[in-house]
Protein: Peroxisomal bifunctional enzyme
Organism: Eudromia elegans
Amino acid sequence: SFTVIQALEDGLKKAAADPSVKAIMICGENGKFSAGADIHSFSSPGRSQSASLPALVSLIESSKKPVVAAIEGIALGGGLEVALGCHYRVAHVQARMGLPEVTLGLLPGAQGTQRLPRLIGLPAALDIIITGRHIPAAEALKLGLVDEVVEGNTVEAAIRLANKV
């Protein structure tokens, strides 16, 4: 939702301005990173133009402080695009990632079609983009989509990685 996008943007800006913050970790709630954007809100009246998913992903990527995504459950659509904007990604072994918008007749709209090929190469990225299939964490690691796969606490692993980098 745009409320979540705005909250993430506000949190990123606050962390960037705080000299005591050395790295930023983004995680979801209740064992899920993000199922993506609410497609019903795309045409909502009063939609904030300042809180857009592409702008948020660009803000994450441009952070001078390392940003680590802690992916649990699912990171689909806009959720995966948020993770792609992060400098590092840690996934739980049972996590699944993908860009399923194509199954609704849509293309990823928050720069996933640019960031994914840069990260894992064009052939693998095209497969994910045009099929909409969900990629298990082990495959995501092999492709280079995530930097680490863990069986334990994903948030703690992401914090360890953030402290390391």
